[in-house]
């Protein structure tokens, strides 16, 4: 229906009747005409007559009354006026003044309570008048969305108008507002209606000038409002490029003070406007209703209790660093993802959650790494990573992680420096992280107990200190003009500590510069200068770089001396690829020596070159079917042996190159496993490495990296590496799986595989029956046989079948079936069985993988009778078994585990035949470094076999008898098997972890007096000295959780412990009779800090135990089930404060664990991003269903409300990027629940980070603000 301007209204305009009467009369006429209120048609009509046919003051007053009474929509009227008045502000200064008055009153007035059809009309009108969709590049979704865009358009239009009126022109990051652009090609005193008469009225000219300043004043008053800040913040969060344009305008205004030189008030308005706008990016909600919730969410920001009190000891808020580092150096599992990347993410996460400064964060990181190294002072001797891996973390991984953090800061700087604008607007912050790093390094001197270097690196630390003293001497001489600036003498290597090594690692990566040498006290007084006559030792690397040939003596020196520069490593790499036949393996050997294990300052580069050598490039002009890898066989043999040692493999793992190494090993296995060895290529008398040796090294290396599970091969590299690309490898994999799944058919001569098995069985039989046959117990390494068997005669060599390695591996299961059956039926003695197995491994070391797979499968089938371990047929453990069982009980008792252990008692000592055969085989291997790649495979297999009832102690006793220096390691490893058999043991060790870190629940003073104790949790040493060394509970758990068959149970145990500890500590801290605290507020603060520490420990242990799997279960099952389950509680013990702290601890643990596995950054990896969104969405949907009343809870309402409020608060403040991955409807439900609990500010903060789809909801919610 067309709405005509009433004739009577025009008549009343002439009579200047009261505008309020017009508004009442117009309101009465709306209903009969079938129109709605507010009326879009009436607004259109009134404004069209006002601009400018009836530009009468009374009509402006009518607009005021119509908007205040709800007859017209304020944002609709103002949008209509904006598109008409601003372009005419020069010719209609009175109208512009009145428009600004209305704007100051109604710009933030928003009422969404109207019919849908009315909303649609207003949205369409706003979009058309202000060209919102075109300006912002997005469709207007709803009225609230339109309101946000309308307000931002008003702000930019007024600033652009004032700039234009003052004669300023600027190039903005976005286009000028449409209202100003329409005047770009017209004279300032000429309006767009074609009125070319120059207005000379002095009053109107003054009004024009005042209007420009009034526009800034209006904006200043508007942006003082919280509503305005929220609206602008929505633009900042969802359209940052548009907000940058606003910042650019303000900066331009501030840079042109001439316009305000005569107006002090104008300068003040502009300064306040700029200050208001700059609050937008840093605005945080204030929880005015719930002071306790606000304190919990912001815990750490201004609370010294939650910060690290480094002077008295480590703080619990940083224990995730310690737990992750200790878990990372566990040799049981290699890392697929780089420790550098993981540690970088943890740095950001913990800084955010602890509300810490960069200095505190870096210092906590260094201290955790130093504790990691100090724990290895008296290590367990055994086939596990030792000091090299821990030093790699301290001196390579941590500096590289910090380098990532500094690089992220540098990436943000250029854009800020170039334009002078940016989202953060904190240009003073650039370089703050580097300054914090320097400060943290200087503070390390306060921790002398952690800086004492282990004996093996004392020389390196002393050299670093002497280097600094020499640098200072050279600088001093150069400054004093004494010659060319050379040192006055050599310096005695003395007084160096771990700080000197850390500083050198940072300088080498350009994190700091050599000014660190001049820090007070950095060069110890014990570093003294000696006369020039003192002999100086020349580095072998200098000799090498001068072109000296690689003689045996130089090779040995280079192998044991780490390189000091990248140029040295690059030259070595080129020799390994392109040198002479003798130089290539020598260069590969050197590369895997001290430069890889102890060249911390360039370790990442050495690792990169080692990986490259595993995949040598195809030489130019290479053609034909013969693989180019064969030409590099000697070099590959050297690099495989060098890189497959236990410590080296773990260093590669820490640097995250396991996927690349696996991808390089697969073609090596495919190529060398398909070659038929020649007699010269098989004989151990030859100096050439054998084809079998290269294949076996690569194959066992591959299985070690993949944890003997080929399922991980497809996940091994960023680029897909499918096993189908390697048909021989795939064939073995499929056969291996089928052998595990079912028993084998008997041998028959028709099958080629069986024919190969017959040949090898014949060879084994001849060796067994030959007089003087040796079982290979006296092994000596040789170049031809990696297992170190004695040199064999040409006759024996001739008896060995010339077969590709893949064919031999395919026949192994049938060979094992035959000899195991023969032994079971008494046709083959136990000694001959062991000798036969060892001969098989000597023949092809890679066969060890098939032996392990087959025997392990046979154990699970349970078809083999046990054999007596009596010392006659099979080795006997009787001599050491009692002491081993006793020590296992003592170790378990020391970590708080009191459960029965597997014991043979008085029954005969028996093992299943496959287990006895495998154990006997492993006892034949010598413990030399050249066989570490063998022990890396048999170790985990032996542990798996030993996990059966009563077997662990038997097997451990046998090995303890063989290797006495490994006794403690063997006993400690055997102790872990209790977790495979007892769920109660899992609960007990986790409780011990909490007790050792937080104190005992049963001690009335423990929870309130005990400092959190990282050394109590993880130990200051791996082993506490004694007749039976004890282990720290946390360390023992981190080495044992992989033995737990039901790892999901860890979630339930941890969440129960967190709840129990929080309730007890809250009761103790808030008790009125506490002699330690006089202030109730202080008691509550301490209780909250302890709740945070409990949750932090729980999240750290949970993530270390199961990573993504357990965190996913925590979100989707464990926490929801905990809320839905009834709990047995003692009546009257749990206070309301304890309930609230319980909810806070649960939310904190959930958030922290999720942040550890997914990160808090917006730019996560694609797979992590999708997983994160899915899991968080599931949990949030559960919360929303509860709030809607679809699910009933069994928990206390105070716990539930605290959980929701704290969870949302933590997400908003620590991981806002997560919010956009939640469904908008779920966010609205959560916000509605918070609003019902009077947490409007928190609800607002949640919605404003929900993306464009929740902008409308925010606009509706801000009406709750006064």
TrEMBL record:
The organism's place on the tree of life at top rank: Eukaryota
GO BP term (any one): regulation of phenylpropanoid metabolic process
GO CC terms, sorted: mediator complex
Protein's recorded name: Mediator of RNA polymerase II transcription subunit 33A
